[in-house]
Specification:
single chain, 4-stranded mixed β-sheet, alpha+beta, 71 residues
């Protein structure tokens, strides 16, 4: 999946409603899921753009991603 234009410099995008973070570089991420999140305007980016920072803010990696721990 290519990253949405607005998030071309971000790897992780969080959903404020469910406290789930998506890895935009993951091959198993459905583009429709990200499109719906952007349309609802309930997204969160992280600085620094790392999974550890998302977890620090209470987000969990989407369970649909394969069993791996991106850094």
């Amino acid at each position: 999946m290519s990253r949405p234009t607005r998030f071309e410099h971000n790897r992780f995008l969080g959903d404020k409603r469910s406290q789930v973070v998506y890895d935009l570089d993951a091959a198993d991420l459905d583009a429709a899921r990200v499109d719906a999140l952007v349309a609802a305007q309930t997204y969160q980016t992280f600085g620094p753009d790392r999974l550890a920072e998302a977890r620090n803010r209470g987000y969990k990696l989407w369970k649909g991603h394969s069993d791996r721990d991106p850094k």
